[in-house]
Amino acid sequence: MGLDSAELKQQAGKIAKEGTDLATDLKGFVAALEGLGNFSGDDEAGRTFYNGAEGKPGYHVQHDSALADALAVVTAYENIATRLQQMADNKDAAEWNIKISLPKVPE
Q1: Which residues neighbour 15 within 8 Å (Cβ) at sequence distance 6 or greater?
Q2: Number of CB atoms found within 10 A of residue 12's CB
Q3: 34-72 burial string, b = 16+ CB within 10 Å, else e?
Q4: How far apart are CA 45 and CA 40, in angstroms?
Q5: What is the DSSP secondary structure assignment for residue 40, as one 8-state letter?
């Protein structure tokens, strides 16, 4: 099985774009949610919805947890793309080192 550094670099670019697209979508989604304002209200039911009750998390905690998880996925995309690029660079460097270490053919 061959390892094609150009293919690794191409896939790294695609994965990086997916991560960027996800981050952009998340920013828009969060902005839309924040644009709703205080949609839970200030009464007891609204506070229960927002803060939770009986040891169960409310909207606020779930929102923050979901956002943290989604941002972790964005970070994973970035890390995978970086590592694929590094793999390609390492392969290119190794091939070059092999080429320059080959014995010279006498003329």
Answers
A1: 77, 80, 81, 84
A2: 19
A3: eeeeeebeeeeeeeebbeeeeeeebbeeeeeeeeeebee
A4: 8
A5: T
DSSP 103: P
pLDDT tens digit string along 21-70?
999 999 999 999 989 988 888 999 999 999 999 999 999 999 999 999 99
Cα dist. 81→27, 56, 58 in Å? 21, 37, 35
What does each C-alpha distance from 85 to 22, 92, 102 come to in angstroms?
20, 11, 26
DSSP 105: P
Which pLDDT score is estimated for 61?
A: 94
| pLDDT number for residue 74 | 96
Beta bridge partners of 53: 56
| Tokens matching residue 86 | 């590094």
